Amino acid sequence: MSGLQKMNLQDTGALRERCADCTIRHRAICTYCSPHELALLDAIKFYKTFEPGQEIVAAGEETDFLGSVVDGVVALSKTLIDGRRQTVGLMFPSDFVGRAKRPVAPYDAVAVTPVRLCLFTRARFERILRQTPALEKRLLEMTLDELDAARDWMLLLGRKTAREKIATFLAILARRAAALENETPSDGPGFELPLTREAVADYLGLTIETVSRQITGLRKAGVIELADARNIRVPNYLALLDAAGDDADGGMID
User: Fold this and answer.
1) How far, in Å, CA of 34 to CA of 30, rounded?
2) Is 145 a residue whose pLDDT tops 70?
3) What is the pTM of this model?
4) Closest CA to 24 of 97, 98, 75, 108
5) Chain-wide mean pLDDT for the chain?
6) What does the pLDDT look like over 189-231, one tens digit per residue?
7) pLDDT for 9 beyond 50
8) Counts of helices then strands in the chain (DSSP H, E)
């Protein structure tokens, strides 16, 4: 039984906060909402926390809840009939977990780090969605971004070298870290690698040794700097994009 199946309305897992004060407000599903519309969402939301490795939802199950990642990273994966598992995506703060009007989960969703979700019961959210063009507009944008990201991921897995895969992954993390501050990527700022190198290897279809070797190579080339095993600084963002095999704007969706 998944974390969402076991959830009840009293299981908030975190202190309430006003939607207008939320740290992901400028990127989440409610980005375009008016104060009145925010108040409607505020009245029906609740929070749930998950520990690393805890299942949020299992592929094929019906879920009564959906919402946004507030803190942490969620991995989406698919298990084949012979037991092989492939990570097909990562969800970061502001990403939307679940699909409106489609209650059956297409993928397993598991917390990679400590995760906090801002959730809504499906029936209440879909009722507000029908009455709120701003929500529908933002949901469409996020769906199209997800589609573009999936196509970029096909390119990464199918055509990019190991070095390009690692550089692409780090560029995505750098952009997401900047976006959470409502900024564009630039030279200098750092971010924390949210995954272990073993998890990165699984995500990118590489071995742990290859991941470590390529990160070391990027460091020696001056593309990245390592404060420690998990904290990375990008002194030259364009050099990172070049190592990723992408054009000046990254060629990737946030």
Assistant:
1) 9
2) yes
3) 0.82
4) 97
5) 86
6) 788 888 888 889 988 889 999 999 999 999 999 999 998 878 9
7) no
8) 7, 11
Per-residue pLDDT at 186 exceeds 80: no
How many whole angstroms separate alpha carbon 220 and alpha carbon 218? 6
Instruction: Pull the structure tokens for residue 48.
Output: 């749930």
Domains of the chain: 19-146 (2.60.120.10), 160-244 (1.10.10.10)
CA-nearest of 117, 110, 116, 115 to 53 is: 110
Torsion of CA 137, 143, 149, 151, to 10 degrees: -120
Q: Which amino acid is at 34?
A: S
The CA distances from residue 43 to 13, 25, 119, in Å, are 17, 16, 11
Q: How many CB atoms lie within 10 A of CB 252?
A: 20
Nearest to 49 by CA among 95, 106, 103, 113: 113
